Amino acid sequence: MAPPSSLAVLCILLAIFSFYESNAQLSANFYSTTCSNVSSIVQNVIQQALQSDSRIGASLIRLHFHDCFVNGCDASLLLDNNATANIVSEKDAAPNANSVRGFDVVDNIKSAVESSCPGVVSCADILALAAEASVSLAGGPSWNVSLGRRDSRTANQGGANTSIPSPVEGLSNITAKFSAVGLNVTDLVALSGAHTFGRAQCRVFSARLNNFNGTGNPDPTLNTTYLANLRQICPQNGSATALANLDPTTSDSFDNNYFANLQSNQGLLQSDQELFSTPGAATVSIVNTFSSNQNTFFQSFVQSMINMGNISPLTGTNGEIRLKESIEAKVLTKWFFFFLKQRLVGQISKFCYERIS
After folding, report:
1. Which pTM does this prediction carry?
2. What would be an example GO MF term here (predicted)?
């Protein structure tokens, strides 16, 4: 019997690949045979970035959050404007413009992963892994990240404008936005606990300091000593982009001090303080529980991160594994990646039946 042609072998491999991909679901072991060291690669790049930017961990977890709330965890947030592909970037949406950051570190992670495992790991999974590594490196919990997401080919700027919770929204609106993506009140409080590290620009909360809701007075829920400190950082007519610590006590550590801050009326953002200061809200007792028991907070936070990471992922043959233009990618067989990107089995089969000239 004559040995099979290279084209026939390729078709067989593609058939196996298509079956595997169409039945794929998120799993902590998704890359166990294709990129088993991906978690350590991600962590190493973030460790290096932290040497020059102490708030990068908080920025990376925020990227994952803002990505997942718009059409699910699909890395659509990372796409730039592209008229040819009809992409209007989510980066320019109101909640993201001049606010979200860390894209350079994500690029560095992607380059490092591509060097080790070309064409395998999605950008969406990199965002999920970066969020976990950022929390762990700041002294918070670690967990096995479910993997196997694929990347969106499109962005949804309109969805970013309407779906991402705002720091100046009331609790009822924010609760509704969490509910819209399948997250409950415990998820809301636990994920808000990520504000235990990182910074916020003055423009995000300055209205609370002097003219809350048009009253001409500060937010009455603000601790007066804390208010005075914030006015030093963010004076009237001062820089709108000056930074204040989200947690005034342990600004770069992941712990449960955020919830103690809320109890003493030292929540930086309106959306933070309303978790504790809204009369009769279900969130109040959860804040008290997390403040009194860090382990309970950590356990709930991990589960809520898993819940958020499960929001409408693209799996199987949906979406793509986004690639950077790199030497490693170019080395791989161009036809294999062409077939890989086809969404319909019929498109793959057509080329299996035709000789490539």
Report:
1. 0.85
2. heme binding
